[in-house]
Amino acid sequence: MIHAYIGLGSNLEDPVAQLDRAIDTLKKHDDVKHLRVSSIYGSKPVGPQDQPDYVNAVASFETDLSPIDLLDLLQSIEQSQRRIRERHWGPRTLDLDLLLYGQETIQLPRLTVPHTFMLERGFVIKPLSDLAPNMLLANGKTVTEQLQQLDTSDLVFIKEE
User: Fold this and answer.
1) Is 83 one of the catalytic residues?
2) Domain 2-159 fold
């Protein structure tokens, strides 16, 4: 079994409910074990600012799915919730990103792990710190140390999972 971390985000069609539905779907999946979910946080969007604020969380679980099979599962959940992607970094009903897959580094056309921008994003690192504050990241820092390097002033606590 591999320990995976995923980022969850939404800013359309009742974003908190979108995250809750995705989490419920993951809980029911046979290949997802020991699911844990961070608190949910609100933040300003990355990219175009003419869109609603986002809600974000991080989930961790164990799986025996391959990285591509896990990506396919995440994308199927997005599609089942009528994922809308109008433009790059634009609004969306649901975004599920594979952040970490064990200690593996993956460079494939469809998938890069660790997630390309995760170390720069407070809305990823803050919820990750809820689950694994002492985990060592690829840059040699713990999640807590990385969080201290980021501006998280726009993060708003929404709810505890």
Assistant:
1) yes
2) Alpha-Beta Plaits (3.30.70)
